[in-house]
């Protein structure tokens, strides 16, 4: 159950970490079931997956979309999601009557260091809220301080971030510009995705990443929603346990294939000897003079801060 202090913390900072309330037994049971999803995805070439960093010798799937579909999930994991009362917490954080979920993504990278790009998922605040439910300890998620983000003269406007997102190295912000959130297995983080944020961690990962909207919002008025009796939020139809392949294809156009072997070998070499990072660093520093970049991102030398 989310407390008043946690609600106030969220309003001030744009994020909050809470415990799921599940017992160790339940978390471990859920962990086992979720690992089975990843194994099934790898075995049967499930089409709705993402590769971020594809290394030779590894099947480093970054994420599985709609992971609770019966095609890969034989167990009803929505049962656990009903127990952690996400809908209730979101109503308290946002004052929405009811919420609905448009995205469920299972992050499942293998044991490589990872840094995503700093980005915003929305231009305006209070449109959506995102939740990360951790099944493994994960250190390093960063979110820019809310009071800096709502300042008019934003140092990191969206056009800059989008431009940098097409380059190899992520921006490096000053340490006093962001919060770092370390999560433990069983924690849930709610955050405002219109604040600049960066996924970053230094080992393997297993977390459900979800996006919620106000069910009364105009933005989703034409969406088909589905309601499970036992769940305190609605879901988009393509996320149903028994959504057909066609229903999912309409929403998820992700059929990412592995890179070719040459580029996967290069990725692996760069992971241990970051020659490509160094070249990009020089190019990016020349282009964006006043900004700094993370020279060691996505390599063995990557630092936490
Ligand atoms: Fe994001």
Please, could you describe this protein's structure?
Strand 13 (about 225) and strand 14 form a beta hairpin. The strands form three sheets. Strands 1, 2, 3, 4, 6, 9, 12, 13 and 14 form a nine-stranded mixed beta sheet that branches. The protein has a three-stranded antiparallel beta sheet with strand order 8-7-10. With about 300 residues, it is an alpha+beta fold. The protein has a single domain, classed as Jelly Rolls. Helix content is about 30%, strand content about 20%.
Q: Give the distance, in angstroms, between the N- and C-terminal Cα atoms.
A: 31 Å
E-strand count: 14
Helices and strands, in N-to-C order? Answer: HEHEEHHEEEEHHEEEEEEEHHH
Structural class by sheet pairing and helices: alpha+beta
Distinct compounds present: fe (ii) ion
Mean pLDDT across the residues is 92
CATH architecture: Sandwich
**What is the overall shape?**
globular
Question: Regions with pLDDT < 50 over 5+ consecutive residues?
Answer: none
Count of DSSP-assigned helices: 9
Major beta sheet summary: 9 strands, mixed
Q: Give the name of the CATH superfamily.
A: q2cbj1_9rhob like domain
Please give the CATH class: Mainly Beta
Strand content: 15-25%
CATH topology, which one? Jelly Rolls
Percent range of helical residues? 25-40%
Q: How many domains comprise the coordinates?
A: 1
Radius of gyration: 19 Å
